[in-house]
Design the sequence.
């Protein structure tokens, strides 16, 4: 496996790396980067770069191991209280994928579709695939 690269900065790895580095700057593991002070961000980035530079070819296993260690010892332990953690809401809209029969039903009822849209639903152009 090649070394960790810029292409590996996907959402999952970024979250894992943040959880790994936060305790090193004396912050709770689930602290969001944007909650840090400027000087903390500088130290965080320095420690993150050092951590990444030390990763070998088995970087994925190392990140998962370190993340799981922190998750089980510092997050999901006997004192864990879910109410003390914020949940990030990435998308406040809900998608509604209509079947062909539903589309036919609403074809001559645009006002009904408008009511559904006004409740925060986004009507998908095509039905989404069902994943089992």
Sequence:
């Amino acid at each position: 496996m090649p070394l960790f690269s810029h292409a590996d900065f996907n959402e999952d790895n970024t979250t894992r790396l943040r959880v790994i580095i936060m305790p090193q700057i004396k912050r709770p593991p689930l602290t969001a980067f944007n909650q840090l002070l400027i000087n903390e961000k500088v130290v965080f980035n320095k420690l993150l770069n050092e951590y990444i530079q030390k990763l070998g070819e088995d970087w994925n296993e190392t990140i998962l191991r370190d993340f799981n260690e922190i998750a089980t010892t510092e997050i999901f332990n006997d004192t864990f209280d879910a109410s003390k953690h914020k949940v990030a809401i990435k998308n406040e809209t809900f998608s509604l994928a209509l079947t062909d029969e539903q589309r036919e039903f609403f074809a001559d009822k645009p006002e009904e579709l408008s009511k559904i849209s006004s409740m925060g639903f986004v009507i998908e152009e095509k039905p989404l695939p069902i994943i089992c």
